[in-house]
Design brief:
about 300 residues
Length: about 300
């Protein structure tokens, strides 16, 4: 049996352009005092870049230890590295490329405004996910999937739909993959996994019991385990060999969190699929061609109107 994994920290310091995205992703998981530090540096990177650790602690009404802990949680070895990133982020914003905050959709918004707001929010979600996704963890997950004897994917609700998308993509390139949204069936299948197999849990909150339980069982039976979550310190990561962090879901009255998290998760699914297809192209290429050909007769042929 493998030892329980600790929540994974970033493999390298967060680049300046990704700092704001990482604050949005991690802020809901922080203590209130750490949130004050994170919100301050995201709101005024130029001002905070000029402060010492003592100055930022006084500015946010926290302690030096809290400032340092926040810097480390955001992906920096220490406060000095965070200050350098803040200076870089300030320069980035001054160039005029800083994203605007999307306004909340109102019940009386015209449809044109709804389209514009949703499109902006989707773009921001994708940008945040790309900025915070650890490519080292992604590469390790791709390696595990490329050599997997069998792949189980666990997800409930909207995450279950994402899991089905991942499983059917992997099936098309010749992998044995199954998506489980029934928690009992997920656990009974997880019991059958062995070293060389892969189990993937998809949960934005990182705390969905019906997703965590089969991942734990798979982990204890020696399978390589992957967690796709918006909460990198969530309970699910305790049983994950590799953690793929998605953008934290943003919920409003007319936009459930599942809509936002799904966009982020689907981007990671596509990254996994393309990565595995590249790694196994000798097998994946012919498999894709064969599945396309098998369905060709179901596609109507285009006829000329002339």
């Amino acid at each position: 049996m493998k030892e329980t994994s600790e929540a994974l920290s970033p493999a390298s310091p967060t680049p300046p352009a990704a700092l704001a995205a990482r604050v949005r992703t991690l802020a809901p998981t922080m203590t209130r005092s750490m949130q004050r530090v994170a919100e301050a540096v995201a709101a005024d990177p130029a001002g905070c870049a000029g402060l010492t650790v003592t100055g930022l602690a006084e500015h946010t009404g926290t302690s030096e230890a809290t400032v340092v802990r926040t810097a480390r949680l955001l992906g920096y070895p220490g406060y000095r590295d965070l200050r350098l990133a803040l200076a870089g982020l300030a320069a980035h914003q001054e160039s005029g490329r800083a994203p605007a905050v999307t306004a909340t959709i109102s019940v009386d918004d015209p449809l044109a405004d709804v389209v514009a707001k949703l499109a902006h929010d989707e773009r921001q979600t994708l940008a945040d996910t790309a900025a915070t996704l650890d490519v080292h963890q992604l590469g390790a997950a791709v390696t595990a999937l490329a050599g997997a004897g069998r792949v189980d994917v666990y997800g409930i609700g909207a995450s279950g739909l994402v899991g089905q998308d991942l499983a059917q993509k992997l099936l098309r390139i010749g992998l044995i993959a199954h998506a489980h949204h029934d928690p009992h069936l997920a656990v009974t299948n997880a019991v059958q996994l062995r070293p060389g197999d892969v189990a993937i849990a998809i949960t934005d909150s990182g705390s969905t019991f019906d997703v965590i339980e089969p991942l734990r069982v798979a982990f204890e039976h020696g399978a390589t385990t992957i967690a796709m979550t918006g909460r990198p310190d969530g309970h699910v990561t305790q049983y994950a060999d590799h953690v793929l962090t998605t953008s934290a879901a943003r919920e409003s009255e007319l936009r459930p969190a599942a809509m936002s998290s799904r966009t982020s998760q689907l981007l990671v699914v596509d990254c996994l699929f393309i990565g595995v297809a590249q790694r196994t192209y000798d097998r994946a290429g012919p498999a894709l061609a064969a599945t396309y050909e098998a369905l060709a007769h179901r596609r109507p042929t285009r006829t000329s109107n002339r």
